[in-house]
Amino acid sequence: MFSSVIIKIELINKGVTTHNMKLLNLIFFLYLPLCALANENRFVIESEAMKLKVEQVADGFGVPWGIAVLSSNELLITEREGAIKIFYIDKSKAVTLKNTPDVLVDGQGGMLDVVLAPDFNTSSWVYFTYVKDVNGEGATVLARAKVKDHKLSGWQELLVTESATSQNYHFGSRITFDEAGHVYFSVGDRGVRPSAQDRSNHAGTIIRLNSDGSIPKDNPFNKVPHNTKQTMKKPSVLPEIWSYGHRNPQGMAYDLENKRLWSIEHGPRGGDEINLIRPANNYGWPVISHGKEYWGPVSVGEATHRDDISAPVKVYIPSIAPGSLIYYAGDALPGWKGNLLSGALKLRHINRIVLDRDGLFLKEERILEDLDERIRALTQSPQGLIYFTTDSGKIYRISPYDKLPHYN
Q: Which of 19, 170, 349, 406 is catalytic?
């Protein structure tokens, strides 16, 4: 539409006759709907912090659960149904990778998150979480592999978590890395509430490992026994656990500048939480919660706070149903630098959280509500652009606004 207006102005300046202009008006009248159709997936939005350009770059995926940026032209997409794909932006083409693992696709379970290793440019490692069938039950797994020639190679299961149940929900699971290269990933309570307070299993926890899957010596519950016979016994507290008492954390992000680990998790009916994650801390589920039971207006747990349990930084009532979390550290969108961004599934928007220097909540903003999409995953590109996925199978890109949107 903008190009048609510009052309018309140029023709007037060149002295086109009135008769010919009437003919041009008819042409523009017929042309404008086509132009609008071509650009209907590209639009400008106004955040409180700045104007932004939003573009749909892909469509037709299953539920695109995870997304990572391989290059300025390549996106790595996981579909909950089990496939892993590379999407070429310039060709609008997706290629399904070969040699993917067997995935248990059931309820909320399937192929889940994907994140590039911090040293990806040299190591080529890509990290995945997914659900595996363990003796007929589903468990969350962390694995890694390399991508070459549209195939996965060197597949390694780094941890098959002690979280298997017959329930088909609350698997977690997002992945992030800290400044030292430790990998964190989350596991939901697996539909068994008391498990989140039982540290002899991984359900309802955030796990911290070295990049090769080994257990860091400074993990808070890593008490390695010296007796060989003792090592054969299952410990009362699993040494991979970094924090516990989580319901279903489906978003995690690490702030490299301030060395802070953030998580966002689903509450029940109300009570979604953003938490600042500290080692060995208990985040309360199901002992404390701001949520209500699904079957009635009855509080979950004994209270909303307890002195020996870490309180959330932010609570959502009613629930937004958070599906992801990133800490924006780029320069392309300066108004959002230092903010947390989460995709909302139930209330269908991007949730922007502004924090103070100490990591305390200041305010929130709800963006892209008019898009009316269940926003599943977000990621930041090396250039500072944001890509996000929707449960309807679309991929969008958020980039800076330049006076008028540029439609290439």
A: 170
